[in-house]
Design brief:
Oligomer: single chain
Helix content: over 70%
Number of domains: 1
Mean pLDDT: 82
Order of helices and strands: HHHHHHHH
Number of strands: 0
Largest sheet: none
Radius of gyration: 31 Å
Length: 242
């Protein structure tokens, strides 16, 4: 076929055609980036649903907690089932509270510090649950463009080698190979951009949820501290009288 016939021949530039004609290495890069993009969107959807459920659960718990219901009754209700987020903070603090008073109140002196420690551990555990898999989004967002660029460089090298072998620099010969190579970078950006945006958004949502847990923990610790002081007051009075 002459250069003129090649230039006049129809060229299929669809994504599928570009993929099928790409070098094996470039194909593997594209497949990996597409898989990473699917994985990324799965994490994004899962986290969005999780944060929505967490927000709703916190709202319901705060409404119940501040409604005036007895703390003991609320603890009995929540401790009988698995709990997360704010309810988990409440249950962990109340469990330590009851353990201290169930043994006759002999370990009340350092109760406030122990409650703070168990609450901090619970908040840390809940924070890790909320932030789990976010590192995957950050990794996909930062590495996908470079992986796509690797596929592009490899594809361009292959295209130039084919041009050198055919000794034909017609645009009809050069364009398909360059387009196949650039498709890898395009797919890399397609995977990276949503991952970076979602990571920043979800990280901020997780930080807000953690901050809300810490605020509730401080308020609840203050409530328990007042009750500790009220229970310790008669004991101190008796000791002073003795």
């Amino acid at each position: 076929m002459t250069p003129v016939e090649i230039a006049q021949a129809p060229i299929d530039m669809s994504f599928l055609a570009l993929f099928m004609h790409a070098h094996l290495v470039v194909k593997l890069v594209m497949i990996g980036l597409i898989a990473a993009s699917v994985w990324c969107w799965g994490i994004i959807i899962d986290k969005m649903l999780l944060y929505r459920r967490t927000q709703a659960a916190m709202d319901r718990f705060e409404e119940t907690f501040w409604s005036g219901q007895s703390l003991d009754e609320l603890y009995r209700t929540l401790s009988a089932k698995p709990v997360t987020d704010m309810a988990a903070v409440f249950v962990s603090a109340m469990r330590e509270w009851k353990r201290s008073f169930d043994n006759g109140g002999r370990s009340v002196a350092s109760l406030s510090q122990r409650i703070d420690r168990v609450v901090d551990v619970t908040i840390q555990r809940e924070s890790e649950r909320l932030e789990s898999k976010l590192l995957i989004l950050a990794t996909i967002g930062s590495s996908s463009p470079f992986i796509g660029l690797f596929g592009t460089v490899w594809g361009i090298m292959t295209a130039f080698q084919a041009i050198a072998v055919s000794k034909n620099t017609s645009l009809a010969v050069v364009a398909p190979g360059i387009a196949e190579a650039l498709l890898a970078t395009a797919i890399g950006l397609f995977a990276a951009i949503p991952a970076v945006i979602a990571y920043n958004k979800l990280q901020a949502d997780a930080a807000r949820a953690t901050s809300r847990l810490e605020t509730f923990a401080d308020e609840f610790s203050a409530i328990l501290q007042r009750q500790i002081d009220e229970r310790m007051a008669p004991r101190d009075a008796r000791e002073m009288a003795a």
